[in-house]
Amino acid sequence: MMDCKKALQETAGNIEAAIDAMRKSGVAKAARKAGRIAAEGTIVIERDAAGSQAVILEVNCETDFVARDENFQKFSSGLASAVLEQGNGSLDSLADLPLNGTEARSVEEARQELVTKLGENISIRRHARIRQSRGGTLGIYVHGIRIGVIVDLSTDNPVLAKDLAMHIAAANPLCVDERDVPRDVLEREREIQLAHAGQSGKPEHIIEKMVNGRVKKFIKENTLSGQAFVKDPDTSVAALLKANNAVVHGFIRYEVGEGLEKKEDNFAAEVMQQAGLSTE
What we know:
The protein is an alpha+beta fold.
């Protein structure tokens, strides 16, 4: 709508001229693709020169092919740099940032050009920033283009910080420790385990013990401190941190498309449907 308003203003209210202007700029084509599901994409992390802060962002497209395209990756990398240097935390505000801080194009103009060039809906889904704690280290790990992790470790130990980032990428903990587990997550898990245990026919006090034990196991398996360290399964992450006199103040883990509905194309069924044939 804002693009339409801008085009009308530039053409003094001439609708036909505004449509032509939008088509020439690629805005109209980009707008038609905006409703299509974009569940593929890339995760990019950018850290400042001092290593004191880093940003992580997810940029989505429709196919893995475009996700690996050089132009798409260049746009995503430039966007990460712009967010690190100028972003204020608001996703809406990114559209007006100059890409890379030097180009005449804004982020939104560059995105629309990319949509026109690559022929897919491209969207900036989310981003976050972590600042290093005093005397600490930021651990960063990117697995291919699909998973990215930033960890804020309390001590100056780059090797441990990187190992923890790799662990989080692989083990996908919900949070650092039991204190950080959302109440609604615990309540939902307790309800599930209560339903399962209730089918056992055991006395109520035994069922309560079973549920408590299973909830504790859930917490251990889904918190960073409770998990077994992926590089040494005989050692818990909590024990590893204690041995290094370190604390994890927080972490961010992004995975491409998590929580998004992904369209599954069945081209054979589409052809048969268009030909008026039954797919049953």
